[in-house]
Every structure is written in structure tokens, then in C-alpha cells.
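Pipeline run #58 for the internal structure catalog. This entry was flagged by the ingest filter as a single-chain record with no existing model, so it goes straight to prediction. Upstream metadata was stripped on purpose; only the residue string is passed forward. Reviewer on rotation: M.T. Logging verbosity set to normal.
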Amino acid sequence: MVQSTGKTGSNASAPADAGSAEMPAAGEYDPGHNPFAAGDAKYEAKQAGPATRIYCDHAAAVIPETALAGAPREALASMTDWVVDVKALVRQQVMIASLVPTVREADTWASERGQPSPAAKITKYSKVKVATHRALDLALKHGLSPAAHFALSDIMASDRPWVEAVVELFRDVATINKRKRWGGDTWSIDALTLSPAVPVTDLLALPCPPSKKAEAASLRIIASWESQDWEAARKPPAPPATITLTKAADVERRHVDWLWTTENLDPYSCAVSGALIPLHGLTLIGGREQAAKSTFLWWLATQITRGTLPGHYFGAPRDVVIFATEATEHLIRLRLEVAGADLHRVHFPAKIAKDDGTALSISIKDDIGLLSAMLESIEPGAMFFDPLKDFMGGADTNSEDEVRGALVPLLDLTATHDCAVIGLIHLVKSVKGDFLARLAGSGAFKNVPRAVLGVAHDEITDTRVLQQKKNNDAVMARGAFLGRVESVSLTFGGRTEKVGRWVMDGHSPHSLDTVLAMQEQGGRPPTAAERAETFLLDHLDDGAPHPYEEIKTAADKLKIAETTLKRARAKIGATSTREKVKGAGTVWQLPGADEDQTPSLNGMEIPAPTVASRARIRTGI
């Protein structure tokens, strides 16, 4: 057998080209071969490329005098612990591409000064800072280093309007950094921290750097603050006191007054009978977005200013005060106008600083004295807060204690001035719990108010449902109001605006919880037959006979067809009787407790005898 001594055909080895490098055979070592040559070449190319970030003092060194000179150049050079994006310098027109240092040059500059690479990741623990747009503005436009420090004593000696706010900031920082205080970290503050609150021209007028005398004075001020902090932290001794007892028989009896109550009215004319909004105390109105909470509020304002709201001020028009942040005064005025309010009795408050006339935020807790003085100047009937959370003075709305601290002062205010307080609040996205549990924020929003009303949008009929969900001072009203928002054309200034207004439309066939369940819990909307059955059970729940024409008129408003209505009557077991009196016509009536009939609802048999059972079916309870 002849053995092959070489490869032939396509696998035959070709002679190497002259000058080409031969790869070493497997197992052989070639000292001249560098396996990292490609990576090294890539690294060298990167090092030779332009840097994306450099130290500010490095930038000051390479930027020519013609592009940056004087105080701005000195300010940039003093920022030795700051890095800046090269693009930011290009945008400021002080750096051109040909002057940008390479990555190697930027790293070498940092290494020679014992600093990390400017391209290194910067965290909150790094000593190196990134020059922000505001920091560069201070340095390049105003010649002021953002790291420049100013003494507390020099700031307090100034007579500028911003001094009080800055001193308060100093005090907060001093309290937080007590351990660092004598290290000199809190007796001064840098320009970058001050710049949002203090005009740059005022900063440039302050001594910088501060003198030793100013430093010593600042430390003495901070030491006095520490003493005050200790005094405030100690619980003051309780003064001598005794506890007295008052007999209940000696307490004066007083009626509970109601801003809005329909207790003594004909239930067929007012739809819902009950005490709804107390005159003394806080009432909340909650609901989802687009539920028309604000539109209902303007309806309330209209009734109060016209003296047409059944309750304490019926027949006596009163003033209302509207605190609103989610709608402008111009828009609210249009809505009040189409609602028919007395605009001379509607007031929009504004808190104005006495020194410079600037507008300030109103806080219920902090401005309770101002609110009381405001109410003294008018004939108040109600104050509206839309929404309530925007007037809590920065309180944590998820904290029970902070919310209570902000809301409790309102209780005395309402009693002193016989003025109801009504606030709007949103619902959380969660569908768990009852209506009160879904009020956004702390549990104090459901615990502090004396009454809570809910509003929901029934998208099937494009109507609104209004129902009381809490009443601490009386039996909670049964049933719900039916309302709708109608569009009204208002022409002024040569243009016509479409403005919505709330219209009361009687009694709702659905409870608030039923409408919300359809929206939030994915429940299917009721069929036309189910809506008709619920409507009839509600309309006939008093057990009295009702004229058919009256029932049909009410059903037409809910868009219930006549044939559907008649089928629903048969299904719930209601009787139809033609009266013998001429002109009386046909009447419908639910069977009484003594009649042996078992009506059904949605295919399920229900007990027929009592009005109370029908009310539970109607309200979903």
C-alpha cells in the first residue's frame, strides 16, 4: 500500500505570498506574535480621539483669551473639582472642535492633579461634580464660580427681600448637619445653591470670599440656633391644672343646622329625602375624572346665592367663596353665569404679599386667621375648595396626622361664621373597598368630614348619579339623585361658547355603587329590560298606585321604550288597573305584603311584601 505524503486538490497547501506573516502551527510558540494587537490599536485610537468631558480648569487652560477672558475665565479655572461636557462649551461658543483635548490629554491632566478620569462615572458619593447649565451660566456669563461661598452673617446683613427664605434654608441645613457644624460646613453656602432664590446681581454684591470676622459671626448665629433647637425639642412643663366635670343636663341643646336638606319636602318633588350637607363642618364630594363634580359645585353655588337651596338659608341669598386651581376664574365665571348664579355674591380669593404684591398660595392651616377675617367681610353661606388637597399647605396628604392638622381648624371656622365648607376629592384607581375607602389620600379624608357625597357618570344614559355616602349628624339619605350636564350657548365678545351646566332630573334608578361598579369592576352594563325593571321597582316602591302617564313620562327621560316598560311591569308582578273614576286612566301598583305574588328581578325570585326590601334591591344593598 502506498501512503499519501501530502494533501492534493482543494486542500493542498498553497505557497505563502512573499512578505505575508505565517501563523504558527498548532503547539508552536511565536514570540513575535501579539494576540492583543487589534485591541491595543482600538484603545490607542480611542485615546487619540477627542474627549467628551474634561475638567473645568483644563478647559480654561486650552480656551484662548480671545474666546474667554477676565472674570469668566477665572471663575471657570477655579472650578477644579468640576467636569463639563465639551458639547456644553461648544454651545456656549467658547470651545471649537480643533481645541478639544484628546482623551489621553484629559486623563493625563486629571492624573497629574490626583483626580479621577473626567469620563469616570459620577455618583452622589463622588467629590467631583458635573457643571450643570446653571453652573456654567454663573461662571461664563456672570464671572461667578458656582463654588463661591457666602457667609451667613453677610447674607443676614443684607436688606434684600430674599433674605428670609435664604436664612430659613441656612437654618434647615445647619440643623441637619449638626455634626459637621464646627467643621465649617454650614456657616456658609455656595452660589449654585443660592442662585435659584437670589438674583446674580445681589450675589455679586456680597463679600466673597467672606472675612474671618464674618465667619466667626456666622458660627455664633448657628450656635444660637442650636440652643433654640434644644429648647424646642424639650417638652415644656405642663402648667398646674385640674379636670372639671359638666353635667349633660347643663349642656345647651342645639339643633343641627343643614345647608342642604330635603327632609320635610315632598319626596316626589325633590327625588331624595334626607339631610345632605351640614352647615357646620366639612363636606367632601368625591368622584372620578369627568364625573362633573365641579359642575355640580357651581349648581350648589347658584342655589346658595339665589336663596333657593332647601335648608338653613332657603329664602336668604348668601355669598360663596371659591378656591380653585384646576379651572381659571374666567371659566368658572362662565359656568356660574349659565347656571344662573348671582355673580355679585360669588368671590374668588387671592393672598397677596404686603411688601411686593406678589401672589402667594393659600393654606387652610396657616391662613385660618386670614380666612376668618375674609368671612367677616361678607355674608358667607359656603366655601368651596376645588380640589381640597391643593390648599393643605404642603401637608403630606397620605399622613393621618398632617391631614387632620390641616382640616380640623375648619370645624371651628364653620361654626363661628355659620358657613359650610365643601371640598372636592378624587378617587384612587384601586377598585377594592367601599366608596369611602377609595377617597384618595389619608384615611382622615373620610374620618374628619361630617358628610360625604359621591358623583358618578352613567355612560349608558349619559347622566350623572349623586348620592350621599356618609352622614355623621343624621340618618343617611336613601336613594340617589339623577342629574345631567347640558350644553348651553353663551355669546359675548362676538363669539359663542358652549358651556356645561348641571340639571337635576329627579331620582336615579341606579345607586352610585352600581354605576361605579360598571365602570371600575368590569361589570357589564344593564340591559334595557333590567334598567326598566329597576326603574319600576324604584318608582313603585311606596306601594301606592301611580298613573301610567306619570310612569311613562319618567321612563321617557331615561330612554326606556314603552314596550320594554310594559314587559318589565309583567316581570316584576306589578298590577295594571283601570280606575272607575272618569279621566283617572290606568294606574300601576306593586302588590302589597298580603298578596301572594313573587316578582322576579333579572331572572331571580325576590320577596315582594315590603317597601324596605324593594329599597334594598333598588340601592344594591
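catalog note: Residues 212-233 form the longest helix (22 residues).
catalog note: The chain has four domains: 47-142, 150-231, 258-454, 528-619.
status: ready for reviewer M.T.
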